[in-house]
Fold these 3 entries.
Entry 1:
Amino acid sequence: MIRRLLDVMQSLLGRRPPALQVAALCTRKTGEATEVLLITSRGTGRWVTPKGWPMRGRSLSGAAAQEAWEEAGATGRISKRPVGYFNYDKALESGLAISVDVAVFHMGKAELSEDYPENGQRRRRWFSPEDAAKAVAEEGLADIILSLQPIKR
């Protein structure tokens, strides 16, 4: 009900542009197979990619790499340009949600550290691209994961 009221008010007053976040789509090769790293969100425990807000003094890809390190302990080669974008509604502490566009950067040859800032706050797991696409809630993110087939080394 509140969401519908907010939508009506925004349509009357004009919509604010969506906020922007950055994400790292971390992959690795094991033999001939490609694996995609997903982590759990701290709030709901659903499977997501490491993501966060742009950072002052860092490029968007640099911010995505920093999020991969902080949230998953992942390091690797990050693309300079996004491999895709998706949109989701981010729930705020107030109970309202805001529309967020996410620029996704590919981190290839990802390696994991056992010691990283959010260790113990999230789970992390390697998935096949098909299983990763099924595990994430955001359809746009699933499409990006599947669009990278075959993911290059």
Entry 2:
Amino acid sequence: MTRDFEVLREERLHGGFFTLLRMHLRHTLHGGGWSEVLTRELYHRSSCVAVVPYDPIADRVVLIEQFRVGPLKSGENPWLLEIVAGAVEPGERPDEVAHRETMEEAGSRIRELIPVSEFFTTPGGCSESIALYCGIVDSAGLGGVHGLAEEHEDILVSVIDFAEAMVLLGEGRIRSAIPIIGLQWLALNRDRIRMRYGAA
């Protein structure tokens, strides 16, 4: 089966924290032929990186909490438990961003960076892609408020036992998709990581 698409027209509706585009396009169909011309809005932003900071010796996870505008329209609590994340700036590699953001948002250096996965967060309407890592850290002394004032960041850092992180996950108290994916990966790979560091 041939898969193809055509972007017939693209309009820039807004440029701000995100760029909002309106795209007029069509694509081939699974049963053959072409679709009608579709009109879709697309939030466009650069690629991003996320890191699960994990201390395999202490078996502890570093979580952050910050205000997010997304939950406001649904009436949910806008202060979300998350993991370290940030955008890839021009000329940066994802692994460089992982190290930079972990220091800025959690005050921690990464001892080893383990690639986890790359994925689109909301492919139905947003171009954002995430390179997800597990960052091996020393959690001793971590905590407090972090973030860059010029980026209006107000980030509360907490270090919790892995078991407590799994309770938060199981109770649905972590409401953002990226930390859910990261913590589920850690649950599947934790024993292997701890064995590498002589902690299991």
Entry 3:
Amino acid sequence: MNISLQSSPINVTDIDAAVGFYRDVLGLEITLDVSYEGNRWVTLGLAGQPGLGLVLFETDAGRSPEDGEALARLVAKGAMPPVILTTPDLDAVYRKVRDAGVDVLEEPTQQEWGPRDFGLRDPSGNMLRIAEAQAAS
């Protein structure tokens, strides 16, 4: 059996702000921008990983108003599982993120469990970790 990951969802409270962050700050490319029955989702592609995307969904899309509000509160608290990305040049990405005024939670640090990474939050409050990519051996 051959299974691969196609996309991973990220719930956001302001899709335009999220697109600006993931596209303009992190450098992802929009591969799909869909509006349907009052909802919108945007898929962003990852360099070097064709066919894999992060899909931004509004927290209230397809949910009751109560559920949408509850999810928005959880997202804003940073309570959702973190998105973990990698880059070959962690320090350059960190400088770009910091200079863009992004909410940095932790500067680049060599973690005891292995990766050198840093933590940040997107405009909705989602936590992300960006790790230094390990050279192939």
